[in-house]
Amino acid sequence: MRIGVLCSGGDSPGMNAAIRGAVLRGVEVNGFEMIGFMDGWRGFFEGDFIELDRLAVRGISPLGGVILGTSRVPPFPDGNATPAALQAVITRMAELGIDGFLLIGGNGTQTVAELLTRAGVPAIGLPKTIDNDLGGTDYTFGFDTAVSIAAEAIDRLRTTGESHRRCMVLEVMGRDAGWISLHAGMAGGAQVMLIPEFPESIEQISEWVLSVRDRGRSSLVVVAEGFKLEGVAHATVRDGLDGFGRPRLGGVADVLAPLIEQHTGIETRATVLGHVQRGGLPTAFDRVLATRTGIAAADAARDGQWGTMAGLTGDQITMVPLAEAVGQLKTVPAARYDEVRLNFG
């Protein structure tokens, strides 16, 4: 069997470990021939690939980024999975001698995997995204690393904030789901965590900040990039569109900081963490999770479990139908937000 490995969407720590796990199990144990397409779907359509064997994946588990590269190049023109577009994928697979795909990516990539499965194309998903917003898995690899980086930033910002008696606002990633903000804020002891799922008013945020000041402390506010103030229809955006044609988010911390200062009289500074969350070495947790995910995906291909995704359920990797994984984004439940909101301020 000849398997094509392809990464799509934003990079995420642990992707190299997932490739290594899949290749070592697929080639060394299951007897597959495996190739990796460079820069996602671009490499597939342009025939740009490398052979994946033990030598090719030697020593890559601790590395950040991804050796194959990744991109937001869509597999279908204009994003439409028309019969003609699906047939183009099938035809290209035949030309390359590919029997099936292992697709490493987030919600968009796994949605594509599900569309391919429905069209009869054998595909298995490996869930990665720092946002942790993909259904069918308790955690995606990359999330733990992003949270660890954000928690370290909170620790560092707290010391300078306390030194100057300032309120510090840290913006982290999270377009539609606030998992990074929630977990990093809890880990770092932030006094306020603002997430896309639950708008808050500037009056309420200011009340929390003043409460912290009245206790002789300086506030640390963590805000996800997709957070919207109460009564505001749209998230804060920068110029341009992202690779999926969506408005490019970012800058909500720069909006919040002067509003907090205006309402409280407390000097306030904003920091945008940005792509730092994606970079660097993956944590041990992400390396292990990604490796186990790769192994499970290779075994699922051997067993013909196409149309599934290797998700984490408790401490077990289970093959989840792709249709269940991509039905809707996994957002922060109200109960999770409410339990920490009681301690804000």
Automatic annotation (TrEMBL):
Its cofactor is Mg(2+). It holds the Pfam family PFK. GO terms for biological process: canonical glycolysis; fructose 1,6-bisphosphate metabolic process; fructose 6-phosphate metabolic process. It catalyses: beta-D-fructose 6-phosphate + ATP = beta-D-fructose 1,6-bisphosphate + ADP + H(+). Its EC number is 2.7.1.11. The keyword Phosphoprotein does not apply. Transmembrane segments: none annotated. It is an enzyme of class 2 (transferase). Keywords: ATP-binding, Cytoplasm, Glycolysis, Kinase, Magnesium, Metal-binding, Nucleotide-binding, Transferase. It is found in: Cytoplasm. Its main location: cytoplasm. Pathway: Carbohydrate degradation; glycolysis; D-glyceraldehyde 3-phosphate and glycerone phosphate from D-glucose: step 3/4. The keyword DNA damage does not apply. PANTHER family: ATP-DEPENDENT 6-PHOSPHOFRUCTOKINASE 3, PHOSPHOFRUCTOKINASE. Belongs to the phosphofructokinase type A (PFKA) family. Mixed-substrate PFK group III subfamily. Catalyzes the phosphorylation of D-fructose 6-phosphate to fructose 1,6-bisphosphate by ATP, the first committing step of glycolysis. This is ATP-dependent 6-phosphofructokinase. It comes from Leucobacter luti.
